Amino acid sequence: MAKSYGTVSAEQKLKMSGLAFVQGLASGALPLNTIARTLGYDVTEAEHGRVVVTLVPTDAHLNPAGTVHGGLTATLLDSCMGLAVQSTLDAGISQTTLEFKISLVRPITPDTGPIRAEGHVLNCGRRVGTAEGRVTDAKGRLLAHGTTTCLIFPA
């Protein structure tokens, strides 16, 4: 199914479990957010507590030094980790990032080829969820990693 971009209405999202929402993003049944279109990333896998976001870096992502801007890597990690937390939540419950930390391990360039950001929930309680994420290349080399803390609240 071809991916579309936009937002899911609050009414529709309220009726969906977090897992159904994130799986809808991955399958194309629901629109990806518009920053995904701007940056060129995709939500490609979603299961309870785990989400994968993929991207092929291009010249459009470069910083003045000629490598992919760290903000792109941060966005991929924030997305995969936050959506991993979302995938564990019941209908009518939402989350937002309170803080996240990333470490950039290797430079990313257009020559790196496809990259994958995979988020895994570490713990999810009634008010706070935590997750970790890893960005790897097609050879499985670690490019960046991070952690997040998300606030959980009634939508």
UniProtKB/TrEMBL annotation:
Gene3D superfamilies: Hotdog Thioesterase. The keyword Hydrolase applies. Keywords: Hydrolase. The keyword Transport does not apply. Residues 66-143 form the Thioesterase domain. Signal peptide: none annotated. It comes from the Bacteria. One of its GO terms (molecular function) is fatty acyl-CoA hydrolase activity. Belongs to the thioesterase PaaI family. This is PaaI family thioesterase.
